[in-house]
């Protein structure tokens, strides 16, 4: 008789009492990643060489203008997107979440502004900020501080501010306005979440994205691939939408909307929610919307990194739908009001 044939009184083998092996880290389907990458490469290739290929077919000035704007926005923004993805993946893989728990003040009200300010020196796109903030909560950081970091990191990090300066040359006030507004919004929402006293019932504590024991380089590689595939696709869609908006929508209609400050701010805020452009690239799209005031374009750059369709989906999946349905509308309202205030003050 072999050991496998021996059973205890419960009908189990001795080996069944051993701890099960930890599950492997979740991976996206290979076919989906390959298809997404191929589509992205095709779109960028058409953006770069499409005019030459179809030059004899499409001669309309509108098509030429669309292609020029699409290529300009995509090519200008892509280096910043790649840099942001690399830095975000490095942050996720090599900086332990326990570091933030030790660095933050123990008092929750004081931890919120410190967590917000840390976004200035800790780069990361909005795709990465959700799992990073989830890791902070798992390490004991108060949810209000983790939420403040979630909002500030993709909005005021060095890559985003540098890309904004490049997109708006000779206009440092735009960079200052974006940093001040985004920092203020992150702190206000962190404190609001702390003051409601109901966050515990609305928030589902997140699970670890990577299995224990996953190598740091494996985490870096998977995070980089995941963020680039998602953010790169949204960048291409956003560049196409911005070009289409400038070419298809009648100039008189845009001028009418742009002439109303409140309406233009709301419109570009909603556009930012729908386009879901990566924060490292949204300044170039905003700069191309020249019909609108700087205040309206500021709202586009403030709203986009903290509330858009992909972030709402990510937050609902990570923190639960009860969190997302309350947090997204509150974030949008605070961001729009703060943009109006800072735009009136600085712009």
From TrEMBL:
Cellular-component GO terms for this entry: plasma membrane
Keyword vocabulary terms for this entry: Cell membrane, Membrane, Transmembrane, Transmembrane helix
Top-level division of the source organism's lineage: Bacteria
Membrane topology, record value: Multi-pass membrane protein
InterPro entries according to UniProt: DUF318, UPF0718
Region (Disordered): 1-30
The UniProt record lists the keyword Ribonucleoprotein: no
Protein's UniProt keywords contain Nucleotide-binding: no
Pfam families assigned to the protein according to its UniProt record, in alphabetical order: ArsP_1 (PF03773)
Membrane-spanning parts: 30-49, 70-95, 144-168, 175-195, 228-249, 261-277, 323-346
Subcellular location: Cell membrane
PANTHER family: UPF0718 PROTEIN YCGR
Record family assignment: Belongs to the UPF0718 family.
Name of the protein in its database record: Permease
